[in-house]
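Justification of resources, computational component.

The compute hours requested in this renewal are based largely on the per-chain cost of generating structure records like the one below. Each record pairs the submitted sequence with a full structure-token output. That output is archived, and it is also reused by downstream analysis tasks.
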Amino acid sequence: MNILTEIQSLGSIQGPLHLAIGVFDGVHLGHQAVIKAAVEQQQDVGGAVVVVTFDPHPITVLAPGKAPRLLTSTHHKALLLRDILEVANLLEVRFDLEFASQPGDVFIRKLCSSAEIGSIAVGRDFQFGKNRSGNVDLLEQLSVELNYRLHATEIVEIDNIVVSSTEIRKAIKHGDFQEARKLLGREYTVLGTVIKGRQLGRTIGFPTANLTVHSEQLPPTGVYAVRAVAADCTRGGVANLGFRPTVEGADPKRLLEVHLFGLDHDIYGEDLEIEFVQFLRGEQKFGNFDDLKAQIEKDSSRARMIVGEN
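The structure output for this chain reads:
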């Protein structure tokens, strides 16, 4: 994927360019509709599709105290755009208070002055710029002056539910993966980087990968059958999301650790994309490590059957 971080760099791509603009947190079905509108324009008249998004998520800059957990970090979003929608070009616009203070038309004029823009696709409710001065009406007005076609996609509803990151976040928070899958159009996954932990799992025969998750929404505490993708390889596993009361003592922190079936080497520093396949049980405290080991063996056996790795 060609990832750009400067608007001026759009000129390096042969036009006309068809821009799909949005935050796209989660890359859900509503976001996919916007991007597909840009793809359809490219297929009709040629040129190239560029997805334009913002880094970091605007809410983390404008209202950091109210910012929820995100569905996707910027890096995870890029991977999903590449793997699910085959997006070849991504522009990550740096979002800060200076950028937020400019009128909406300034942003669009900068885009159009940097390259030949054939079309712009956004969601019908997309707003941007100082005091939300940028919206579909402004984009329509500017399209005449700046000579691009505008595509404002309608809000997507499934079973009378508006597809939104908020609804998906709510489903994940309650462990409703079926609802999340329906609104996302894909399995829900989180992206994390493997860090070095206390390595206690090795001592009982179940080495685990401890993950620091990239600010992404997690389901309820408990033990899960999972699938993990790393370096184009998919493995089944069993994950504990919680406070590890048996080993952490009086001041535990919520952690995500995954035992991957058949993994026989260290993967410190690698990114893992984790799919929560099925909830197995709640987290519990055991009296000793033998009891913990016996339960992990049972959990692993169930997880192997669920993910098809008997």
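Residues 289-307 form the longest helix (19 residues). The domain at 2-165 is CATH 3.40.50.620 (Rossmann fold).
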